[in-house]
Structure formats: structure tokens, C-alpha cells
Fold this sequence. Notes:
The chain is mainly β. It has helices at 4-16, 32-38; strands spanning 18-20, 27-29, 42-52, 57-63, 71-80, 84-90, 93-94, 100-103, 105-106, 118-119, 126-127, 129-132, 136-138, 141-148, 157-159, 164-166, 172-179, 184-195.
Amino acid sequence: MPPREETLAAIRDILAATSASSTDGALLVEDHYDNEIHNGRVFRGGVSDIDLDNTDVLAIGFRTPLGSVEHTGVTARVYSSGATTYEILEGATVTPGTGSVVPLYNRDRNSANECHVLDSSTDPATAGRATKNPAITDDGTVINTEYLGIGKQKQAGETRNALEFLLKFDTQYVFRVTARADNNQVHIICNLFHHG
């Protein structure tokens, strides 16, 4: 059993992230991610393709800002109706001015905070947006690979927010899905947050 002071310090840490309900006095606990949403520091953007055929690619990319006090973190959800390969590319090389703009919306719709990542569909890049299907000339490092909708699991595949990454500063990232069969419906949704 830990010493009394360590136990009290741990309880104080837990209670610092809680409040009491005004109706029944129940203890309310807000996790870190919810706290970031409530502080206007979580942003969401996504891309879809309702007919991704074999070897076709759907991707969303962005460049993290230069080093600062805030780290950029991301969780991604990928949905696929058939066989696909999902990869996260770090340090990818993309051709400026390719792809199309993906707006990034603040999940706290009352907040005026804007996302700091850069969109490469314009040259020079523009802050607060991502890019759909940038032209990739070098994959960089593949930091995550998942196979969806194939093997014993015949239904649609999905990755949930189980993988959270704190991203490197000033680095291009691409979240890419490659179809391994015809007539796939694919969605990639990124939730980005800034954490200081």
C-alpha cells in the first residue's frame, strides 16, 4: 500500500479532472480528449470515395507546423466495405499544388481556435486545412499498416481510435487506403488535436 501522502496526491490528481453534477451530486470525470474538445483544440476532417476500385487510392495528408510549444496529435478512423490496405506515411514527399482542399472543423463549434496543420493542395501551403489525394512521390516511413475487410472477416473492416500518435514537428503525413478489390466504399476520418 502506498504511503498516505502519495495516495492523497493521486486522489487530488483524479479530482482535478472531475466535477460534481449540479442535479444529483454525482462525480463527473472528463478524460483528456474530452477536455481538449471543450478547450477548442480538437479538429476533424475526412475524405470519402464511394467507388474505389482495385489498386485505386484514397488519401488525406497534411504537414505539421514548425516546432512550437504545441504538439499535434492524431487519431484516425478508416471504414472500408471491402478488401483494402490502410497505411500511415510519415515524412512522405508530396507534390505541392496537387490534390484538393479538405476543411478541418473545430469540434467545439463555439471556439474560434484554428488548426495549425498545413494543406499542400495550394502552393504555398495554407494553414488550417488538409489535402485530399496529394500526389505522393516518396512514401517516407510507413509507421502503421492495417488490412481491412479481408481474411476470415468478410464484413467491412474498421480501425477505431485505438492508435493515437503525437506527430513530429514540420513533417508531412499521409493517411492512405489502397483498394484490393473493386467497388469499395471507403472513408478516412482524422481527429487532430494540439496539446501544449
